[in-house]
């Protein structure tokens, strides 16, 4: 049984009637209105069915009513008078609505029903117990209702407020109200188990790879803009690599969206952006991201068939103008735009937002415009559109800066937008009107949740005759018109229902779900923009490449599925041994060193050795009868050595048996290929340690009788190395890492316990003690034992620039060091590589998990490499260390602090930036004294300097007291300094000192440097403005372009501009209230939200 918890009837239902009105079960209209709330869906059919039961206590344990029809489906009531098997017997009634004959229903059937089940008194239909629910009935869930409908005793006893029990004379009526609802999308109340987006909609979704926010929504919107997709496909990418080329990565995403029946991944695409983390999505909005993506693609389209496609699709023109009222003078500038940002706050709908955008501002009174040749004039200032692009991207400003919270917040106000809009009235009279400027909605990008989280999805109409679809990451579903418009306007729900009274209502957070970007297409351009996509529109090279990849993936999948039938055989040869520098004959499982690159064979476990050997011989070009294969085993002393050769005389011997019997503790086979094997002698491998090159490598093998002497090897080695006969050598046995022993030349191999597969290392004897001292003084190794110790402790360190992009001056490179070596040696090696003074290098360790900066290394500690690498629980074979090339010695830097201070003087202008290197114990006051020696203070001024930071929002100074130690100021920091004005220094108790900041139109678009200013009692703003002009050192012409606004923390609204006869002293200033100067930013140093520009590299 499918169960729903009982809902108390006093907590459910909804207007139009009072919840406590007594309603009769037989008054179908009133009862339905009370217990079946309007869920906002069209009703297909409504039926009430009544079933009378007598002799309750003698009823069967399970009963079904007769069938009745509703909405083209057969239904019945399913009753367990004494509870079904999931509840304690005899004290509960269980009752369900049951789909009568699911087996006879057509395949894939479903029915969406809202229903109420009622048990009532046969004499008084106002005495009843009721529960209601809604459900999508399908073959897997064809009954739905209430296992714990009510306690049986409550039905047989008189309940408070009633005159008689519900079950009287052992009889009762069971009534079901059924409302079958229309399901135009086919997915109403769907649980989406086994849902197939491609089958249901013809489209597939994009995988959510985390933190990519709005990207999936935007990509689906761009993909469905067929003209754009075709243009992207025309970018030549045959020689590109997908993780380095945005164009190719985007082509691949688009191709997979076309052809795949599964959700498509975007990892390659985000990698191609060249971002170090996906945080970039959080720091920038969809408009910036879209703009930068299109710029990148536009540059790739130059000199191709697609050149100009993006401008043609998305670029319109607007004119900013100032037109004098009384004289014939107009100043205007025409600008291109790719999207339009529209206000939501205070706007009822999209028309209001457009009207607000083109609203004319009067420049009159004290705010007159200085017209060239005409002096100060009354003028109209505004924006008018000259043309809109075929595809119009409208950004709705849902995110704003809240002064009180010092943070961005989301605007969830209701803001309506239509399916069709005529933009003619917002166009310049001179605009081309040969075609109507009517636009139709084709895309709605939606954000659900608050600023710090939530979810993004897109609603898109893929072509003019298609139904609307919802692209929600990996799932695509059809949606209704209401889901496109009404549900994304924001604000309070408009269906008149009180959320608390709506059972199972679609998410009470609905008002936090609203549109933040709209895509309109000009009606006259729809056929061209969305013209059908043809097979030939996909480039042949892309098809070929992706088809090959698909086949490779299928082969790999098959390989994985068949993996249990195969094992891997790695083969060491004399050639691979000659290139090996390390322990044993090859590296396999060394913790700090990558494994050797060896010839590898994938072999069926049941393949016979004879067949396998034949394959190996053929691969390496040997006759079969001239090779032997030895199995390497893990010896107890942790070495991996050839142990025994595989027997040649067993024709049925399989590769799996060889592995199991000869190398039992290994998953794979490790083999050594021995050409031209002799008989009756032991096989010894030789390695040469060359002191001058500090290298160790294999020089092949030799054979010896057990009885011969170790010293007999010396003439053999001299001959092989082509050295003068009699060259003195030292021989060492490589027993295991950490145990390399000098051998006695006069001992036999048997006495020295040498066996097949053992390794002997030799070096030229260095009798000259000066030569040995010479090597060791350079940090080099004079003998094999020391060098083997280095090998045992060697690690690969990767060095990357900390802040700079990788380039010729800041390369990424590797260095091999011993864990026993120290910081100084590492710095010297890196300095030598970078050709930069080692003392002027600073290093930072990284987190092994994600490569981000961890902590700066202190030279004074001179830690060992082992300490620098530790502690790492991941134990990587390589460690990444970040480096910085400094201009100063790190010795100074460890005791001193490097700071830069931007000087704004007394007139609040950024004049210069001064660097300082001061002891960390210096105070901010000391820093001010050093600064005073470098800057020019005003004659007759105060001579006093204030050092400060700027608040995150760019609106206030964060002043230092002067006593802070500069070593304690968090890093990184932007410091500013100004000369304190005489006016401020001499302000008395009746004056107010307030904060002032610069912005341009929008409060979040701050620029320049905030400053302090004195407000005087009773002073009209016309006089205050003159003092501000003097404080800023502005001309009359310059100050005329400024507007002034009081920014209050307590109110969250647009700035209130100040008139000249206002007295701002009378304002009750809260500590965070500030005066805003609204003027054009000429500094080029906008600091809105303090972010770096977003850049896509690929």
The Rg value, from CA coordinates, equals 41 Å
Biggest β-sheet strands, sense, barrel: 8 strands, mixed
Number of H/I helices: 27
Level-1 CATH class name of the largest domain: Alpha Beta
- The number of strands is 50
| CATH architectural category of the largest domain | Alpha-Beta Complex
Describe this structure in words.
The chain has 1098 residues and is α+β, with helices and mostly antiparallel strands. It folds into eight domains: 28-181, Apoptosis, Tumor Necrosis Factor Receptor Associated Protein 2, Chain A, CATH 2.60.210; 197-310, Alpha-Beta Complex (Cathepsin B, Chain A); 314-492 and 510-535, Cathepsin B, Chain A, CATH 3.90.70; 564-675, Ubiquitin-like (UB roll), CATH 3.10.20; 682-736 and 747-764, Roll (Ubiquitin-like (UB roll)), CATH 3.10.20; 791-886, Phosphatidylinositol 3-kinase Catalytic Subunit, Chain A, domain 1 (Ubiquitin-like (UB roll)); 888-980, Roll (Ubiquitin-like (UB roll)), CATH 3.10.20; 986-1090, Ubiquitin-like (UB roll). It is 21% helix and 30% strand. It contains 27 helices and 50 strands. The strands form eleven sheets. Strands 12, 17, 20, 21, 22, 23, 24 and 25 form an eight-stranded mixed β-sheet that branches. Strands 2, 3, 4, 5 and 8 form a five-stranded antiparallel β-sheet that branches. The protein starts with 27 loop residues before the first helix and ends in a 20-residue tail after the last strand.
């Amino acid at each position: 049984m499918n169960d729903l918890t009982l809902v108390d009837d006093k907590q459910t239902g909804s207007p139009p009637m009072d919840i406590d009105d007594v309603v009769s079960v037989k008054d179908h209209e009133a009862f339905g209105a009370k217990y079946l709330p309007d869920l906002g869906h069209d009703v297909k059919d409504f039926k009430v069915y009544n079933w009378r039961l007598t002799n309750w206590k003698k009823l069967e344990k399970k009963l079904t009513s007769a069938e009745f029809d509703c909405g083209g489906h057969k239904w019945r009531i399913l009753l367990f008078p004494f509870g079904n098997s999931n509840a304690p017997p005899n004290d509960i009634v269980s009752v369900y609505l049951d789909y009568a004959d699911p087996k006879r229903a057509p395949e894939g059937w479903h029915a969406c029903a809202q229903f109420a089940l009622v048990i009532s008194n046969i004499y008084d239909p106002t005495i009843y117990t009721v529960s209601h629910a809604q459900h999508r009935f399908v073959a897997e869930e064809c009954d739905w209702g209430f296992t714990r409908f009510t306690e049986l005793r409550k039905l047989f006893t008189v309940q408070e407020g009633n005159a008689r029990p519900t079950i009287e004379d052992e009889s009762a009526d069971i009534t079901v109200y059924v409302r079958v609802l229309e399901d135009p999308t086919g997915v109403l109340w769907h649980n989406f188990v086994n849902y197939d987006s491609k089958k249901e909609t013809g489209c597939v979704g994009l995988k959510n790879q985390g933190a990519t926010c709005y990207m999936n929504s935007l990509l689906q919107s761009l993909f469905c803009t067929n003209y754009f997709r075709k243009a992207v496909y025309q970018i030549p990418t045959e020689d590109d690599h997908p993780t380095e080329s945005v164009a190719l990565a985007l082509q691949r995403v688009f191709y997979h969206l076309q052809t795949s029946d599964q959700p498509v991944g975007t990892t390659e695409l985000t990698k191609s952006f060249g971002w170090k983390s996906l945080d970039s999505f959080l720091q920038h909005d969809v408009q910036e991201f879209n703009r930068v993506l299109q710029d990148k693609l536009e540059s790739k389209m130059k000199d191709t068939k697609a050149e100009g496609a993006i401008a043609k699709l998305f670029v319109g023109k607007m004119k900013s103008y100032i037109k004098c009222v009384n004289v014939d003078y107009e100043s205007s500038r025409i600008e291109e735009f790719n999207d339009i940002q529209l206000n939501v706050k205070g706007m009822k709908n999209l028309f209001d937002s457009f009207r607000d955008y083109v609203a004319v501002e009067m420049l009159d009174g004290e705010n007159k415009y200085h017209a060239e040749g005409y002096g100060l004039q009354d003028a109209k200032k505004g924006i008018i559109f000259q043309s809109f692009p075929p595809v119009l991207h409208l950004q709705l400003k849902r995110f704003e800066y809240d002064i009180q919270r010092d943070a961005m917040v989301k605007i969830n106000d209701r803001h309506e937008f239509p399916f069709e809009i005529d933009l003619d009235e917002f166009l310049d009279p001179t605009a081309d009107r040969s075609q109507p400027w009517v636009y139709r909605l084709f895309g709605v990008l939606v954000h659900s949740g608050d600023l710090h989280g939530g979810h993004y999805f897109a609603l898109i109409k893929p072509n003019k005759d298609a139904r609307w679809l919802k692209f929600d990451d990996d799932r695509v579903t059809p949606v209704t018109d209401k889901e496109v418009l009404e549900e994304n306007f924001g604000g309070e729900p408009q269906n008149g229902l009180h959320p608390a009274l709506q059972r199972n209502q679609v998410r009470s957070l609905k008002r936090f779900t609203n549109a933040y970007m709209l895509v309109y297409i000009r009606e006259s351009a729809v056929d061209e923009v969305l013209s059908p996509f043809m097979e030939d529109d996909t480039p042949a090279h892309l098809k070929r490449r992706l088809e090959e990849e698909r086949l490779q993936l299928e082969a790999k999948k098959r390989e994985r599925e068949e993996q249990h039938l195969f094992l891997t055989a790695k083969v060491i040869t004399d050639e691979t041994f000659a290139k090996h520098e390390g322990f044993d004959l090859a590296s396999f499982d060394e913790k700090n060193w990558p494994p050797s690159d060896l010839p590898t064979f994938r072999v069926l476990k049941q393949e016979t050795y004879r067949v396998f050997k034949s394959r190996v011989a053929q691969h390496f070009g040997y006759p079969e009868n001239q090779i032997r294969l030895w199995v390497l085993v893990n010896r107890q002393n942790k070495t991996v050595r050839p142990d025994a050769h595989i027997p040649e005389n067993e024709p049925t011997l399989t590769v799996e048996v060889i592995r199991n019997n000869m190398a039992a503790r290994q998953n794979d086979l490790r083999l050594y290929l021995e050409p031209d094997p002799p008989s009756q002698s032991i096989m010894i491998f030789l390695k040469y340690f060359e002191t001058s090159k500090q290298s160790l490598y294999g020089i092949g093998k030799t054979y010896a009788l057990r009885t011969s002497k170790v010293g007999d090897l010396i003439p053999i080695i001299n001959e092989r190395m082509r050295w003068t006969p009699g060259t003195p050598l030292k021989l060492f046995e490589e027993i295991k890492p950490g145990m390399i022993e000098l051998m006695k030349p006069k001992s036999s191999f048997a006495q020295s316990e040498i066996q097949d597969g053992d390794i002997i290392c030799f070096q030229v004897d260095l009798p000259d003690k000066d030569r040995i001292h010479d090597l060791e003084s350079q940090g080099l190794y004079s003998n094999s034992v020391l060098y083997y110790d280095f090998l045992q402790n060697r690690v690969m360190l990767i060095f990357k620039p900390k802040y700079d992009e990788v380039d010729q001056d800041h390369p990424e490179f590797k260095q091999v060091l011993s864990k026993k070596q120290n910081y100084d040696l590492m710095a010297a090696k890196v300095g030598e590589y970078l050709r930069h003074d080692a003392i002027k290098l600073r290093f930072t360790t990284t987190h092994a998990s994600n490569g981000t900066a961890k902590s700066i290394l202190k030279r004074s500690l001179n830690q060992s490499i082992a300490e620098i690498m530790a502690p790492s629980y991941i134990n990587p074979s390589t460690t990444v260390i970040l480096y910085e090339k400094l201009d100063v010695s790190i010795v100074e830097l460890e005791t001193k602090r490097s700071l830069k201070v931007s000087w704004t003087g007394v007139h609040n202008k950024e004049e210069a930036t001064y660097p300082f290197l001061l002891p960390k114990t210096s105070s901010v006051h000391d820093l001010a004294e050093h600064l005073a020696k470098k800057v020019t203070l005003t004659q007759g001024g105060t001579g006093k300097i204030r050092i400060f930071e700027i608040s995150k929002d760019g609106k206030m100074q964060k002043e230092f007291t002067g006593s802070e130690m500069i070593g304690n100021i968090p890093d990184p920091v932007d410091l500013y300094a100004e000369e304190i004005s005489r006016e401020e220094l001499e302000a008395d108790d009746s004056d107010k000192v307030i904060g002032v900041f610069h912005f341009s139109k929008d409060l979040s678009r701050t620029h320049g440097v905030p400053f302090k200013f004195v407000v005087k009692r009773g002073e009209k703003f016309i006089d205050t403005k003159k003092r501000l002009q003097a404080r800023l050192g502005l001309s009359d012409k310059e100050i005329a372009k400024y507007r002034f606004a009081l920014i209050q923390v307590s109110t969250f609204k647009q700035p209130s501009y100040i008139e000249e006869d206002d007295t701002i002293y009378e304002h009750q200033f809260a500590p965070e209230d500030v005066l805003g100067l609204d003027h054009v930013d000429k500094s080029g140093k906008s600091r809105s939200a303090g972010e770096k520009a977003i850049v896509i590299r690929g």
